[in-house]
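seq/struct pair 1
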Amino acid sequence: MDKLITCLYRRPSATTRLICFPWAGGGSIYFAQWARLFDESVEVYSVRLPGRESRSQEAFALTMDQIVNEVTHTLLPKLHEKAFAFFGHSFGAFTSFATAVTLKEKHNLEPVHLFVSGVSAPHSKSRSSAVKKSELSDEEFLRYMSEAGGTPKEILQNKDALQMFIPPLRADLRVVENFIFNKPENHILTCGLTCFDGTEDIPHDLDAWKDITSGDFNIHKLSGGHFYLKDPANEKQLVKYITKYLETAEMDYL
C-alpha cells in the first residue's frame, strides 16, 4: 500500500479516513500534509499515482479504469476497517468519483461523503465543448499553466524543471479528456456530496453534481482561482467544512 498511499500522520484510533486524490500532474505530499490540520478523529491518506515521486520510473496511467482498478484493489482491505470519505480536486474529483462508483457497483461500498473541488460534473455538457488541453502546443500549454495558477513561477521559468513537470500533467489531462460518463437515469450513490470551488476560477457546472447522489448536496465557494485551496485561510475553511460533514456522516454511519 505504501507505493500508492502517503500517510504522514498515522492515527490508528481515527474514526474516519479521508482519502485525497491529486489534481492533474500532482503528487501526494500536498494533501498528505493536510493531516496536521485535522484532529485525531481523521486519518488522511493521499494517493500517489504512477509516474511521480517515488513512482517516477513507472509509466503514467493511460485510462481512468487503470487508476481506479489500482486504487480499488490496493485500498479495499482498508475500506472495510472504518468509515472513509473521498476528496478530489479538479482531475482528482473525477478519479475520486470514478473510484466511488466502482466501489458501489462492484463491492457495495461507498464513501460516507464525497468532496469534489474545482470542476464540472463528469456528465456536464460543458465538458464536451472544452478545449483538449493535452493537445495544446508547448507555448499554449505553458500559457494554460500560467493562467491556471498553482505552478510556482520558478518552475515555469526553468526549462529543466518543466521537462519533469509537464509530462505527468499532460498524461493526466489525456486521461480525464477521454473519460466519458453519461448522465445517470437514477442516482448512483447515496452518500452526501459537497462541491468546493474558487470564486475567480472559470465557471463550473456544479449543480449537475446533484444528479450523482440521493444524499445531501452542498456547494461552497471560497475566494481565489483554480488553486484557491492552496491559500492557508481557505485550507482552514475547507478543513472546517469537511470536519463538520464527516461528524454528521459518522453519526449516520454508526
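seq/struct pair 2
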Amino acid sequence: MEKFHDTILTKLELSIKELEVEPDCPLQRIEEVIAITINALSEVKEFVLKKGFKNIAEEIYFFKYQKPVIVSKLIFYNAVYKIETKKPYGTKPIKKYLKKELKRLKKFFDNNIDFYKYYRSNNTVLDENYFLRGKHDIRLWLDTFYFEADHRFSTSHDYKVAKIIANDLIQVYLEDRLHNINQKKASDASPKWTASKTALTELIYALYSHGVFNGGNADIKLIAKTFEDAFNIELGDFYHTFMELKARKMNRTKFLDSLCEALIKKMDEQDEK
C-alpha cells in the first residue's frame, strides 16, 4: 500500500508542479489541478477496494496519514478556486473578504480544538475509533460529510485530518494575499524614482565615494541594493553604467551638477519671497 500511495502522490505533485499553479495563475489551471487530484484519489480508492489492507495498523496509517494528504490538496485547491471566483473588486473589499475567510478557518479550529490537539500531538489512543472503517461514534462530533461518504473508503475522522492539513495551506495562501496587498499599497504610497537609472547610479557612486555609509566601509553592492529596494527599481549592471559615466568626454557628473543647480535655485527663490 505504501509504495502504491507514494507513487500516486509523487505523480500528482509533479503534475501540479508542471501546471505552475501560483497565486496569480488562471482559474483554468486550478480546475485542471482539481481534476487530476480527483483522478489520483479515484486510483487510490480503486486500489484500496480491490486489495484491502494487510492488517489494522496499515489501515489506520492509511486513513490517518496517507489518504488525507491527497484529499487535503483537493480541499485546498477547491477553496482557492472559490476564494478567487467570489473575490470582490477594490482593495478594501478584498482585504475585508480575505480577513473574513481567515476568521472562517479560526472558527473551524475552535470547533475542533480537541481533535487538533489529538492529531498535532501524534496521540494514538483513539486511532481505532478515528481511523478504522465502520467504527464511527456519533458522540465523537462527526462531520455531516461522513454520513454522505462511501464508508468502504472513509473513516469517521480521515476527512477532518485532511481539512486540518488543507486549512494550514489555505491560511498561508490568505495571509500571502493580504501581505501582497499591503506591500503594493506601501509601494504605491512610497516615492518613485522617475529620473534615469544612470542618474541614480551617479548619485549612488557619489555617496559611496564620499563615505557617507558605515563610516565609508559599506560595500557598493549593498548600497545599490538598498536603493533598489527603496525605490523598487532594478539598476542592472550598475558598475558598467559607472564605467560609461567615467568615459564621458564632458560633464561626467551631469546629474550631480543639476542637483546643485536645482537646490541653489530653490534657495534663491525662497530668499526672494
